[in-house]
Each structure stands twice: as C-alpha cells, then as structure tokens.
Amino acid sequence: MISIVKGAGSNSWVSLIAPHPSVNSRFKRFLDILGSMVGFVVLAIVFLPIAIAIKIDSPGPIFFAQERYGLYGRTFRIRKFRSMVSDAEQLKSKVQNEANGHFFKSKNDFRVTKVGRFLRSTSLDELPQFWNVFVGEMSLVGTRPPTGDEVSRYSEHHWQRLHVKPGLTGEWQVNGRSHIKDFEQVFELDLQYQTKWHQFYDLSLIFKTIYVIFARIGAF
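Given the sequence above, the corresponding structure tokens read:
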C-alpha cells in the first residue's frame, strides 16, 4: 500500500507500508460503531448539565475543536467539552511542559477550569469524540492522536505510531496515562499495541479503560 504521509509545515514523503491488520478488521469497525452508539446515548444524557456547568464556570464556547493527525498522517478535527479557559492556546507558552519529547503535559496547568478538572478526571470531556469514531476517523482503541506542533518534531520512525487509527483509549491510557511524561515511552506503548493486537484485544483494553475511568487512575 502506498500512503502519502504529511508532517506539519512543508515536510511530506511517501511511505511504503503494509496496512496493519486492525485497519481493515470488520470486527473492529463493528465494535467502533456499536461503541459510538452507546457513547451517543451517554452524551445525550449528560450534555445539558455539562454544557450548563461549563458556561457557568467560564465564559466561552461549550466545545474545544482542534486539528489532529490520524491514520497515515491524515488530518481531522476533534471536539471535546471545553476544559480550559477560552484563550488557552494563546496562554500555552506561559505553561511549563512537564513532559519529555514530542507532547505536552502539565499537572498544574492554570488554564484548566474547575469544571474542566472534573471533566478530565472522569474523561467526560472526551465524549464528543464518539462522533469521530462513528465516521471512521478514530477508533475506540488505538494511539493517542497527535497535534500539528507535536508531529512537526517527529523523526520519520515516529510516524509508525500512526499505522493504526487513533483511539479514544489505548495502551497509554490504561498503563499510566498522564503519569507517563516521556514521549518515547508513549511511542513504545503504541508499538506494543500494534504488536499485541488481535480481534479481541480491543475488548480487553476497553474493559481496562472502564476500570481506570471509574477508579480515576492517572488523569489530571
């Protein structure tokens, strides 16, 4: 399979890669559609109280939208319930990045609102991404979808993590999540998922994710 992979800015190249088995798995796609349907039901139940809480807590939109990189470097837009102040992107330079490598993490990020901290700790801010799963841009399980400023610093081998669809959850989320602050460790977990994957492996990670969410392990 020939895939054109584009990095941020002017970087682009053609990568000759064999598709990962998960990409064309009918069972995985069925699981994604079924899971997104369940997600829509949950979203419908909690949407109004979350929207009201966001508006009361901080002026600005209900949703936060951002371009991310998905399968083979294709870009798409995700939406989350807004968990930060509305001018968070402009204030990013004032926050110390506590992570090492090509991603951004800060435990005491002053841009996160009170409601936002609750949404993040419960993963409720992620619910709108079930739409991305439903339309096939994401999967329930996969890799963490990177931003443009993250991929602009990728070495070529880092693009291997995007040989599968990005996911709402994955190895990173169930093996430490926000406590993992080294990109190379995240990268290794992404490759571990690609190596271990089989038809029912996603189910095991989904059940682990449910436990992690309810136990509030590793999120901030």
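Residues 2-215 form one domain. Try to locate this feature in the token string yourself.
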